[in-house]
Specification:
213 residues; alpha/beta; four-stranded mixed sheet; 7 helices; globular
Length: 213
């Protein structure tokens, strides 16, 4: 929840954008509405169930992203650029998102790699279709490079931005927290949750050691 909210709250400063939250499973919509309302997220966010609406797992991701892209093209016009962002990088900087918008508006894609081989953001120019996601191996160390090559095959040049750490595993989270002073301003809710968790763990470890002694 904290990572999702930190990501969504960044966009309060962007007034002239259509904001879509793709979610699964489909029956989670009422719960999401409560979460978003309670935490004061920009009310302009629209909720859209993922195709299939079972999960956002990697095996379905090409279908989910392609469907979302085409639905948005129909809803907002084929002249609209699109940017896809996951919820596992709450420290993503708004300035990088804006750079992605600008790059897509110029007719090029922009991708922000993840240090595990995936990517945390993809901005696409208006002419991009769902074919952009065909044949991508998700959750792979080659995902980002495959995405770049797929776009190239469709005649779309890609600008590669800064590399981020996404928070997929316990080790990712531990490493992130160790360096969290650099990111606290970008994701305050996530930082606070992690701080409480790690402090509780340290206290429990200390009590265990005292008992053993």
């Amino acid at each position: 929840k904290a990572m999702l909210l930190d990501t969504l709250l960044k966009f309060r400063q962007l007034q002239k954008t259509n904001k879509i939250l793709v979610y699964a499973p489909s029956n989670s919509k009422p719960d999401l509405r409560k979460i978003l309302a309670a935490d004061g997220v920009d009310s302009s966010w629209q909720l859209s169930p993922a195709i299939g609406s079972v999960s956002l797992g990697s095996s379905n991701l090409s279908l989910i992203l392609g469907d979302a892209l085409e639905r948005n093209r129909k809803a907002f016009g084929e002249g609209s650029c699109q940017t896809f962002i996951g919820m596992d990088c709450p420290h993503l900087k708004l300035s990088d998102v804006v750079s992605g918008f600008e790059c897509a508006a110029s007719g090029r894609a922009m991708i922000l790699p993840a240090n595990d081989g995936g990517y945390v953001m993809l901005s696409l120019p208006a002419e991009t279709t769902a074919e952009a996601f065909d044949g991508i191996f998700w959750s792979s160390e080659k995902t980002c490079q495959m995405q770049i090559e797929r776009l190239k095959s469709l005649g779309i040049d890609t600008v590669v931005g800064d590399t981020y750490t996404d928070l997929d595993t316990p080790r990712d989270i531990e490493s992130f927290y160790e360096n969290s002073k650099h990111f606290e301003e970008d994701c305050p809710l996530t930082f606070e949750v992690l701080r409480k968790c790690f402090e509780a763990t340290e206290e429990a470890d200390g009590e265990g050691m005292a008992t053993e002694n």
